[in-house]
Specification:
Elements: H1 6-11, E1 20-21, H2 22-31, H3 36-43, E2 49-50, H4 53-59, H5 72-81, H6 98-103
Antiparallel strand pairs: 1-2
Helix pairs in contact: 2-3
Length: about 100
């Protein structure tokens, strides 16, 4: 697991034209002079085509307590439903519960 955060990884990908595959993301990060931690994080993502920066953010592996807050309910739902193969569990997108949606109104 790379010792970096999602913002640092996405910062190295500011000039990427999406959709882009893993190799294109790595080339662009190297061209931007990304740190070795960012390159390591990008090497760890599944080899698929990414439609936008959010897809990359959900797939890159960082420390579980980095910068993506999840409630206990969201973490439990992630454990039950799973996510993309090769994707870090703590980064999987979890639908909001009806209670959370109601509280946001």
């Amino acid at each position: 697991m790379a010792h970096t955060d999602v913002d640092e990884v996405l910062g190295a990908l500011q000039n990427v034209d999406f959709p882009a595959d893993k190799e294109q993301l790595l080339r662009e990060a190297e061209r931007e002079g990304a740190s070795e931690e960012v390159l390591t994080a990008l090497r760890g993502i599944p080899p698929e085509e990414y439609g936008n920066r959010q897809d990359v953010a959900r797939s890159v592996r960082t420390e579980p307590d980095s910068d993506i807050p999840h409630t206990a309910a969201q973490r439990a739902q992630q454990a039950r439903l799973g996510g993309k193969p090769g994707q870090s569990q703590h980064l999987r997108e979890v639908p909001r519960t009806p209670i959370e949606e109601e509280l946001d109104r």
